[in-house]
Specification:
The chain has 216 residues and is α+β, with helices and mostly antiparallel strands. It contains nine helices and four strands.
Length: 216
């Protein structure tokens, strides 16, 4: 080939056991372009390489068609719901890369857009949405970051309270969910402290101290 035509992988991790292909791959939308250039260490993630931010931005924001998942009358079946996980992760990687490159306006637009096409009332916000809070803060969009943090914390506060309200003999069935909640709050606390968002940090501390006391 000698790079006369671009070489792409759907998942570089599938061939990286033999050679370090992922170290030379750059995310372009949903695929990974193989190029004879190593990325900066801060951009590299083992198994999925780095991100070509400009190309990925154009693909996700201008070229991809996301259907009607966000339309009020459209039912989101379990398979469609599951299939939104990879796009959201790709959006998160793109947003982080843009913010790291100082392209804060574009990073904020990506964070806004992913919530527009995969809204919370249809594709419920999960643990991985915390990445967008981090990007908002990194890009200086603190009001938007705090708004998303509030939505996520409400969800995890309600989930935690529900699990703790159960009879102890049934509560063990939800250990994994409870661990996820506490992991979320710990990560949220770290992010809030990093960007000096005292109200968010104090809210996490208050909630965890109260619930930990109830569990003793």
């Amino acid at each position: 080939n000698k790079f006369k035509r671009p070489v792409y992988f759907a998942s570089p991790s599938s061939v990286s056991d033999a050679v370090d292909v992922d170290k030379y791959c750059y995310q372009e939308g949903f695929v990974y372009r193989f190029m004879p250039v190593k990325p900066d260490e801060q951009d590299y993630i083992k198994g999925v390489g780095s991100v070509n931010a400009d190309v990925s931005y154009d693909i996700f924001m201008n070229k991809c068609k996301w259907g009607n998942l966000n339309a009020p009358g459209v039912y989101v079946d379990r398979e469609s719901y599951r299939n939104t996980m990879i796009p959201k992760q790709n959006f998160a990687r793109l947003a982080r890369k843009l913010a790291a490159d100082g392209k804060n306006d574009s990073a904020v637009k990506v964070c806004d857009y992913v919530q527009q096409i995969f809204p919370n009332n249809k594709i419920h916000f999960d643990y991985y949405m915390i990445q967008f809070v981090d990007v908002y803060y990194k890009a200086g969009a603190f009001a938007k970051g705090n708004k998303l943090a509030d939505q996520l914390m409400k969800t995890y506060e309600q989930n935690t309270d529900y699990i703790l309200s159960l009879n102890p003999e049934f509560r063990g069935n939800f250990d994994e969910d409870l661990n996820e909640s506490f992991s979320f709050f710990n990560t949220m606390k770290q992010i809030a402290d990093q960007y000096d968002q005292k109200a968010v940090s104090q809210r996490v501390d208050k909630f965890l101290n109260q619930r930990m006391g109830e569990m003793k």
